[in-house]
Design brief:
The protein is mainly alpha-helical. It has 14 helices and three strands.
Length: 415
């Protein structure tokens, strides 16, 4: 056999060996993947985290009671049929739908959410674009802001609520696959920054500044937990501070908000009316409150008393002690969520729970901050309490995602 023939024969054998090795490696990977999927299916049959579920149900129940108390005057005076239970009944229906969705989603193997990550993100962006299209008959404008899509009073929803969850699921899926690549700009910063700029930008145009802040905040939190370089974190914080200054002190939409946030009493009958009434409402409650259902400010003195400013009614009726108990319940829910994230078996599940819990934490902090005058007035609701059926249903569905992940937690000695 000539040297050339022997060399060709050797190369052919090496090629066959490489092909066989590649096939064997792919088969091993496929078998490993199948084993992991089978293990995940078995683990998904485990029990949900009962403390987290009970906290959600308790906050939802208290929220419905407080909504009935806060809303019956405005429901009686402003609705067509003068029905004092109008807002409560609608909210209760959506609460039951949301709880059913929570329990249903809680039984799903959360690994299946990977399959809808991209689709949900694309759908949310399309819906956000529909909101800002001029003269779109499906877009609904309230209080000089176009944030909703719907058909008259029959059904309306905020696409920004879907966008928040879309960002959480997509980021969790994508980041969980990259691992060490998250420390690079190309893979760990650029693609996610582009998504955040597009989604948060569309929300900000509505205008809905608080919604944009929530999307940016949860996206940044997931990137940080995902392992991006801390240098980028400090750079992003500096850029965010600059953008926030521009949005609050330069853009005309927000200038008056800052001015009358710093001193609402300067124009307490006009532009500072809402915050000044909120502070009066909170102060009227004192330590023990005036009693459940006995608020005076809800009789058309405090605007949005059943929506963004329901926490002020809580302070008036239940006092500092009652409001503190509700804040403790929120804190317990948030801490339990992060506890679940620390005990999950997969990176994807941990990121999912961190994203959902961070959304609830940020929204709760921002709402209470606005109502108490700590932050400038902007439209942001209190989870499980503020009126908004679709928002409540989506929040409860998000809690179902956490419960789904909790089924596959690592065993702990105590928790």
């Amino acid at each position: 056999m000539s040297i050339g023939t022997f060399g060709a024969f050797t190369q052919a054998r090496l090629a066959i060996y490489a092909a066989q090795t590649g096939i064997q490696r792919r088969q091993e990977q496929r078998l490993r993947q199948q084993a992991l999927e089978e293990e995940s299916r078995e683990l998904a049959k485990g029990p949900i985290d009962l403390p987290f579920c009970l906290l959600v149900l308790l906050l939802t129940a208290i929220g419905l009671v407080m909504l009935l108390s806060a809303s019956f005057p405005s429901a009686y005076y402003t609705t067509k049929k003068n029905d004092p239970t109008y807002y409560f009944v609608r909210q209760a229906v959506f609460a039951m739908m949301g709880i059913a969705a929570m329990l249903f989603i809680g039984k799903i193997n959360y690994q299946r959410f990977r399959g809808v990550a991209k689709t949900l993100l694309y759908v949310s962006i399309v819906l956000l674009i529909l909101v800002i299209i001029p003269h779109n008959p499906l877009a609904v404008t309230r209080n000089n802001a176009t944030r909703w899509l719907g058909v008259g009073e029959l059904f309306t929803f905020q696409p920004s609520e879907i966008a928040k969850m879309a960002v959480v699921i997509y980021f969790s899926d994508s980041i969980s696959r990259k691992k060490d690549m998250m420390r690079t700009f190309r893979y760990g910063i650029l693609p996610y920054a582009m998504i955040l700029v597009v989604t948060a930008g569309l929300v900000a145009v509505e205008p809905h500044l608080s919604g944009a802040i929530l999307i940016l905040g949860v996206g940044a939190a997931l990137m940080l937990v995902g392992g991006i370089n801390w240098a980028w974190v400090f750079g992003a914080l500096g850029s965010a501070a600059g953008l926030l200054y521009f949005a609050l002190f330069v853009v005309g939409y927000n200038t008056s908000r800052i001015q009358y946030w710093l001193n609402p009493w300067a124009d307490a009958q006009n532009k500072g009316y809402q915050l000044s009434q909120s502070l009066i409402t909170i102060g009227s409650g004192g330590l023990l409150g005036v009693g459940l259902g006995k608020s005076r400010q809800k009789f058309l003195f405090l605007p949005e008393e059943h929506n963004d400013f329901i926490f002020a009614i809580i302070c008036e009726e239940l006092g500092l002690i009652g409001a503190s108990i509700i804040m403790v319940l929120f804190a317990a829910l948030i801490l339990r969520g992060y506890w679940i994230a620390l005990h999950t078996r997969s990176r994807f599940g941990s990121l999912l729970v961190i994203g959902v819990t961070t959304l609830i934490a940020m929204q709760t902090f921002l709402n209470i901050g606005v109502v108490t005058g700590l932050l400038p007035t902007t439209g942001i609701s209190l989870p499980f309490f503020s009126y908004g059926g679709t928002a409540l249903s989506i929040q409860l569905a998000e809690m179902g995602v956490v419960l789904s992940v909790s089924r596959q937690m690592r065993p702990t000695k105590a928790g």
